Amino acid sequence: MRKLQRAWFPPPIKDAEARRLPYLQAVIKEGLHIMPPATGANFKLVPPEGDVLNGHLIPSGTQIGSSYLSIQHSASIFGPDAAVFRPERWLDTKTDATRLANMTSIVDLVFRYGRYQYLGKNVALMEFNKLFVELLRRFDFAIVKPETVARVTNAGIWIVEDFCMRVKKRREE
Predict the structure, then answer these.
(1) What is the mean pLDDT of residues 88-109?
(2) Sequential DSSP letters for 31-63
(3) What does pLDDT average to over the chain?
(4) Contact between 67 and 110 (Cβ < 8 Å)
(5) Distance, CA of 110 to CA of 42 (rounded, Å)
(6) Could you tell me which of 13, 30, 10 has the C-alpha nearest to residue 83?
(7) Closest Cα to residue 26, out of 90, 71, 105?
(8) How many Å apart are CA 37 and CA 20, to the nearest integer?
(9) Helix, strand, coil percentages, rounded to 5, for the chain
(10) Measured between alpha carbons, how far is 93 from 99 in angstroms, rounded to an integer?
(11) Which of 2-6, 26-30, 163-167 has the lowest mean pLDDT?
């Protein structure tokens, strides 16, 4: 029987280890901020007693929708470069604790909140923590035609076209 060779890769990263990698955490948050998985209108029903929104009385039974994409790209929360992928915004020492907490709570909205919160949130975050590290350990990624502008559209999910990459398995030591 042929003996399997052990790959040179270290054992898979543990979730707790990945959570201690500040730049990885910043990249994950920035990815959720730039391209939230759900972008449609998030409708909620006003409770029977009505509610007040921005100083206006909203009658009972009214449906109110919010756009995750517009909230995630708010310049008042994320800064004037809100539409730019910049993980450093999460590590910037000039970012005060209140702003960082606001950015975090807004990014957390991609998983909804309260009784509507996505039950798989913790599993999804654990998968992000492991997936990105393991992919980058095992493969090299390169954009094939960086001068070509990718076409990105959204139809409830993201559709990315004309974005060619070369993925090459890393050599074993």
Answers:
(1) 88
(2) HHHHS-S--SEEEEEPPTT-EEETTEEE-TT-E
(3) 89
(4) no
(5) 10
(6) 30
(7) 90
(8) 24
(9) 40, 20, 40
(10) 11
(11) 2-6
